[in-house]
Amino acid sequence: METIALTASRLQDAALARFARQGFDATSMAEIAADVGIKKPSIYAHFRNKDALYLSLIPLMIAAELDYAKGVLQGGAQIRTQLHAYLQSIQLRFADSFRVQFWMRALYTPPGHLYDQVMAPMHGFMEQLEAIVLAAISESSLVPNAQQLSAEVLTRTYLGLIDCLQVELTYAGPAKFARRLQAVWAVFEAATAPAPAPAPLQR
Question: What kind and span of H or E run contains 58?
Fold first, then answer.
C-alpha cells in the first residue's frame, strides 16, 4: 500500500507539471487528482487547498536550483566555461523540464494572492545563489582582471545577466534569448579580461 508521504510526493509532481503547463488559475485539483489516480477529496488529506499545494513546491524548487548551481559553479581554472554553461542552461533546462518551467512562472508570474508568500523565500534564494557565485568567482582566475573589478562587482553583474536572460526567455522566446546571451556574454568576457602581465624590470 502506498505511503502518505509517497502520495504527497506524487501529488506534488502532478501539480508541478500542471502548473508549469497551464498556470495556477487554469489548473484544478480534480485534474491533479486524476493525474495521480485518486479521487479529488483524497488530496485534502495531504494539502489543505490548491494554495497550500502550490506553496509546498517552492522550497523544493529552491533546493533543486541551489543544488544545480553548486554543481556547475565550482570556481577554478574552468570558471568561464562554468559561468557560460549556467547561463546556457536557463534555456536548455526550461525546454526540457517542467520543474524549470514552473520555476520561471513562479519567479515572474506567481499567483497574485500568493505573491508575498512566494517572493519571501525567493529573496532568500537569491542571497544564497549570490553566495555560490561569489565563492566560485573569488576562487578563480577572473580576479584580478584588467578592469580591476572585484569579485563582488562581477558577482552582482553576473546575477544581472541571469535576470535579463530569464526575462528574455519568458517574454521573447528562445531565439531572442540566444541572441541576448551572445551579446551579454561578449561584454562579460571583455570585462573580465586578464590583467596584463607586469613589465619586466629594467636593468
Answer: helix 50-72
